[in-house]
Write a structure and sequence with these properties.
Strand content of chain A: 15-25%
Strand order of the largest sheet of chain A: 1-2-3-4-5
Shape of chain A: globular
Strand order of the largest sheet of chain B: 3-2-6-7-1-8
Oligomer: heterodimer
Distance between the termini of chain B: 39 Å
Structural class of chain B: alpha/beta
Order of helices and strands of chain A: HHEEEHHEHHEHHEEHHHHH
Radius of gyration of chain B: 30 Å
Largest sheet of chain B: 6 strands, parallel
Number of domains of chain A: 2
Largest sheet of chain A: 5 strands, mixed
Number of strands of chain A: 7
Number of helices of chain A: 13
Number of strands of chain B: 17
Radius of gyration of chain A: 21 Å
Number of domains of chain B: 5
Helix content of chain A: 55-70%
Strand content of chain B: 5-15%
Distance between the termini of chain A: 33 Å
Structural class of chain A: alpha+beta
């Protein structure tokens, strides 16, 4: 299968999956968001072709049944990974749609996950493992900027260069002794979900920096459609003098200039 | 860890399951056809689960060789969770991994969709482009469109209005003065679907109509054929044709009969003919065909289901598979108190089910359902006989004391079941409960659009976008305008109370007016210069002139583009599809937002944000569930029409005419349908009002049967039309309605665990089923208002039969990132406008998996 055939294959199976998922879940994606999803898959193929071509087991389902929450609810943890065996080395990959910069800055969130998976793989199933990594296919700031620039200048090379520099693989260390702790915090979350505790994070949390200089509010909240009805986010936003002087500007947040132009262009493109 | 031979019994112990004799036999019977008669609450889900585990773990059946169909997505999710849990525990004991991702498990529809796209079922294993699926809403808008009706006029050379009337009269068997497009569309949809579900060939219908001189039927058949062709050309299918398409595909190659080792169908009493054919086709090779069901709980005749598929299963396996099925009864009821079980058993026997020819019964007899709880507690009660007002009051007080005396943990453990939610009695009941301070969740009581969240949201949207002018119509359109006026009223009041909301609405309105006016101005420039909007746009030629249009706003001016845009456009104009002047006009006069963006912003104003707040700590989930539904409807609208708000869409009220005049109006009309399976759990803090159909497969600690009767409207017309076209043995037409009513109430009665209240509603116009009349007379059930509520049983927190599966990524990580975001998008399923959600992740993951599988399979191909 040559590159063009692969891209065609990607587009077809993408559409097919979308229809099936829509049928199963009854929900859909807006055209703009759908386009971003397709881009991620294509970037995966462009950049991580070597991984894709060496995958020995795909969609390995790892299950840890018979867990119990602190208040006694039984539950099962499940995850899906890909495994690559190559030259006597076995690596477990977890593909994430977040961007690599974010994953790198927030490694601790993912350590639990890959540690639990590795535990199931090594200790429970008694299979070899030499390392684990996250493959973060999300659009990094670098990629987004390059996309923007190549769009402005109509120069595809910029995008190619950015893909060249992009490092989507984030290795994660394994330490079996921490498993208990990871499982315990998982159970706590299950209890909270079952008990309907869904309060937004505190204002301190959303003011904290999670990616370089970017705060949680900028990186996470501004990508959340539900932020307008969120007390914590409002408290954060109305702290700025712009918003407190003119509350309308709070609702005028449609992303960056670039994102707005793109939104218009994608939608018009589809409809022309 | 014991690596020795693991047995099924070991696994039972691990998962603390003690099957009864019938269950065990069913779990172990894997060879040949199996006829499983499962009474209410008999643990059939567990049996299905363990039977599948037995096949996979102990018989070495590959998961992809199993076809397991359930009635709802929720049921299949539960089975998948259970399988993952049990199989996961096996892997951890024996080291043998199991992967059920390629197992065929889901609703018939999703499995058909899967078959169509799966190379396993295609001759030569080539790739096919799977069809685009029209769901019920899509199908309605497709057939209800002007384009479609124009097409009918041309095809049949008829006048639309006249033909509509013919069709309406023919398909209902009644006479009318007028037929609206909506009425006729819904009737056509249901007969088309029926044709497809019966797998009828159009020619057969036409020949029959010719012989019988049924002109209208002949025309309908021609339109049906034309509709099918039209869909086929654009590679689309509706829900019913999806099954036909899958079946047709299976027939193309003999090998498809051998692809599955096990076919397992749940709720078999509610399957239709095309499904039956499909299942027997798949089972032809292995003959391991297991059906599970209960004929007494058959509910979906009006959707083409035929209970005879189940009742006559033994006969039909002999016919199609040349062998008799093994028959097993699951008749221990684990759900309900003793008295509840004996009540519904007696109820069913108040009617004679003996066949006309006297040979046997129309119902599977001798079910011998035994309650596991042999208690003597009071569990069935009634009210004093009375009219709607008095019984409602009595029941509301009773419900209040159930809650006050902590007989239930939360009001959502009490369900009101009605044959239909449209009656005045339902309104009265709701009012009486609210008078007692008890909130009701009734998303389908009347129309969805009547709920207060919908009125407020659509009201505010109409304040911004405008609404169509009410013309001189009567009937439904008038009623719709009444609704629109109510919405407006609600919105105005909200704006009075919230001055920021008012400012916001005015700002948005102004924005739209600006776009519209600038568009008109630009259009004038185009005309003044003798250009056409379809001309290719050349910045050098057009841009300056357009920018010099008098009075246009700064925003529009900058929308006309930057130097960068000009370059892109010049580049493009060399290609095949240059940008047109229309494009540049649209682009410069569009706003940055769409209706879904608007929705999320409106949610920020206190009236709506309060609803989120109430859900955040689990106080009240009703309003947020309704808001989520609205987000779904808005996103549907954006999918089927232009989502961009441009000047061109705003002039002449085009947008508001399309949005309110067509789309929301359509929702308003089809909102009358009441069959909807709630896949979300019942919101905390409220008692639920459900139709009996909605309660299928569910159970509640306390059930209030709101209406002890339903009007028997005689022979259902669709049955009458279809019967002569099919050849099979069916229940006599004259008794179909009576039987269906009995079965429906049987379902209602058997939902209750601890307590069942049968409303003794009497008075003018109230229909009471004869069976209930007798039952209430004979049994002397205690009356709610005279009962010491403390004598009733408490609801118990059920230890979840099947542990839930939680994912590290889509549950844990998503929750710790932001619990509120998890709630909005994962728990309540809001459709995002811009943010990425789970669907996004699944879509990316699955497509990447497809790449991997593609590579793995081409690797093994080249090794061969």
């Amino acid at each position: 299968m040559n590159n063009n055939e692969m891209f065609q294959f990607i587009e077809e199976s993408f559409e097919e999956n979308y229809e099936l998922l829509r049928l199963e879940g009854g929900h859909s994606l807006s055209p703009q968001v759908k386009k971003l999803a397709l881009e991620q898959v294509k970037n995966y193929w462009k950049k991580l072709r070597h991984v894709a071509e060496n995958v020995s087991d795909t969609e390995v389902r790892l299950t840890l049944p018979q867990q119990s929450t602190p208040s006694g609810r039984p539950y099962t943890i499940q995850g899906v990974v890909d495994v690559v065996k190559e030259d006597d080395r076995t690596v477990m990959y977890d593909i994430k749609t977040q961007d690599a910069d974010f994953v790198r800055s927030n490694k601790k969130d993912y350590e639990g996950q890959l540690n639990i998976y590795a535990h199931v793989w090594q200790s429970v199933r008694e299979q070899e493992l030499d390392g684990t990594s996250i493959l973060a296919t999300g659009e990094t700031q670098g990629l987004r900027r390059a996309k923007q620039r190549s769009f402005l200048t109509n120069n595809d090379n910029l995008l190619e260069e950015a893909l060249e520099e992009w490092e989507p693989e984030v290795p994660i260390d394994i330490a079996d002794e921490r498993i208990e702790g990871y499982l315990e915090s998982f159970g706590v979350v299950v209890d909270k979900i079952e008990e309907h505790c869904f309060e937004a994070p505190s204002i301190e949390k959303i003011n904290s920096k999670i990616l370089g200089n970017k705060t949680f509010a900028v990186h996470v909240c501004r990508n959340c459609d539900a932020r307008f009805s969120c007390d914590t986010y409002k408290e954060y936003a109305f702290n700025s003098s712009r918003v407190s002087n003119d509350f309308l500007s709070f609702y005028e947040d449609y992303g960056t200039e670039q994102e707005r132009v793109e939104q218009i262009e994608t939608t018009l493109e589809e409809e022309v | 860890m014991f690596n020795q031979r693991l047995t099924l019994e070991d696994l039972f112990t691990v998962h603390k399951f003690t099957p009864n004799a019938g269950q065990l036999e069913a779990i172990k019977s894997l060879n040949g056809p199996l006829f499983l008669m499962a009474g209410p609450g008999s643990g059939k889900t567990r049996v299905l689960l363990w039977r599948t585990v037995n096949a996979i773990v102990f018989q070495g059946i590959l998961p992809e060789k199993i076809f397991l169909s359930t009635f709802t997505e929720k049921a299949s999710k539960q089975l998948k969770d259970g399988l993952q849990t049990i199989l996961g525990s096996v892997t951890n004991i024996t080291g043998v991994p199991y992967d059920i991702s390629r197992m065929y498990i889901g609703t018939v529809h999703s499995l058909c969709q899967k078959i169509i796209g799966d190379r396993r079922f295609i001759k030569e294993r080539s790739r096919v482009k799977p069809p685009i699926l029209l769901d019920e809403l899509d199908q309605y808008f497709y057939i209800n469109s002007s384009v479609f009706w124009k097409g009918i006029e041309e095809l049949l050379v008829v006048n639309e209005n006249e033909w509509r009337l013919d069709v309406r009269q023919y398909l209902t068997g009644m006479s009318f003065e007028f037929a609206s497009r909506h009425d006729t569309t819904t009737l056509l949809i249901s007969i088309f679907n029926r044709f497809s579900e019966e797998n009828l060939q159009t020619q057969k219908i036409i020949d029959y109509a010719q012989n019988e001189d049924e002109q209208v039927l002949k025309q309908i058949a021609r339109v049906y054929e034309w509709y099918k062709l039209k869909l086929e050309k654009s590679n689309m299918v509706d829900f019913s044709l999806l099954q036909q398409r899958a079946y047709t595909q299976l027939l193309l190659s003999d090998h498809t009969a051998y692809e599955f080792d096990h076919i397992i169908i749940d709720e078999y009493q509610d399957t239709n003919r095309i499904q039956e054919q499909l299942f027997f086709r798949l089972a032809k090779g292995s003959k391991n065909f297991c059906v599970v069901g209960d004929d007494d709980q058959a509910l979906y005749r009006f959707r083409g289901a035929t209970v005879e598929n189940f009742v006559q299963f033994p006969k039909r396996t002999e016919l199609y598979l040349q062998t008799k099925p093994k028959e097993i009864k699951l008749n221990t009821n684990y759900r309900s108190k003793n008295q509840i079980v004996s009540t519904y058993k007696q109820f069913m026997e108040k009617v004679s089910w003996i066949r006309e020819d006297g040979r046997g019964y129309y119902r599977l007899h001798d079910k011998d359902i035994q309650p596991q709880q042999q208690d003597n507690d009071i569990s069935v009660i009634t009210t004093k006989p009375g009219n709607s007002e008095s019984v409602s009051k009595e029941i509301a007080e009773f419900v209040k004391s159930l809650i006050d005396e902590k007989k239930v943990e939360d009001p959502n453990e009490i369900a009101f079941l009605f044959p239909s939610l449209k009656s005045n009695h339902v309104k009265q009941m709701k009012k009486s409960l609210e008078d007692e301070g008890i909130s009701v969740y009734a998303p389908r009581a009347g129309r969805f659009l009547e709920v207060k969240e919908a009125k407020a949201m659509f009201g505010v949207i109409s304040q911004i976008m405008g609404k169509p002018v009410r013309q001189d119509y009567a009937g439904a359109y008038k009623e719709y305008h009444g609704w629109l006026r109510d919405c407006e009223e609600v919105a105005k009041q909200l704006m009075v109370k919230d001055s920021r909301l008012e400012t916001f609405v005015h700002t948005k309105k102004k924005e739209l007016r600006r776009c519209k006016e600038d568009y008109i101005r630009l259009l004038k420039t185009v005309n003044d210069n003798d250009w056409s909007t379809t001309d290719a746009y050349h910045p050098k030629k057009h841009k300056r002139v357009l920018s010099n249009t008098p009075l246009i706003s700064e925003q529009t001016m900058s929308g006309l583009g930057t130097g960068r845009l000009d370059k892109v456009i010049e580049e493009r104009s060399k290609g095949l599809r240059p940008f047109t002047l229309q494009y540049i006009l649209n682009r410069s006069t569009s706003v940055d937002w769409n209706v879904l963006d608007l929705f999320y912003r409106l949610c920020g104003f206190s009236y709506f944000s309060h609803m989120f707040k109430k859900a955040e700590n689990g106080d009240d989930e009703g309003p947020i569930s309704n808001l989520s539904m609205i987000s779904e409807y808005l996103s549907r609208y954006m999918e089927q029409s232009q989502s961009m708000l441009t000047g061109a869409r705003l002039i002449e009220d085009r947008f508001s005419n399309d949005f309110f005049g067509r789309y929301v109006y359509g929702l308003f009309r089809i909102g009358e349908s009441e069959v909807e399976n709630p896949e979300t759990p019942f919101p905390k803090g409220r008692v639920s009002f459900l139709t009996i159909h909605q309660s299928k497969g569910l159970e509640f600690p306390y059930v209030i049967l709101g209406n002890p009767g339903k009007k028997n409207s005689g022979v259902p017309r669709p049955e009458e039309i279809v019967r002569p076209l099919i050849d099979s043995e069916n229940e006599p037409l004259s008794r179909v309605s009576e039987f269906d009513i009995m079965r429906m109430f049987y379902v209602a009665l058997s939902r209750a665990e601890k307590g069942l209240l049968i409303t003794n509603l009497r008075g003018q116009g109230q229909v009471v089923a004869p069976a209930f009349k007798q039952l209430l007379d004979e049994m002397n059930y205690p009356v709610a208002s005279e009962l010491d509520v403390s004598k009733l049983s408490n609801s118990e927190i059920k230890i979840n039969d099947i542990p839930k599966v939680y994912s590290y990524t889509s549950d844990y990580l998503m929750y710790i990132k932001c619990p509120r975001n998890y709630m909005v998008f994962k728990k309540y399923g809001f459709v995002p406008s811009r943010s990425q959600t789970m669907l996004f992740g699944s879509l990316v993951h699955q497509t990447i998996e497809d790449i991997h599988n593609q590579i793995i399979s081409s690797r093994s191909d080249s090794n061969e």
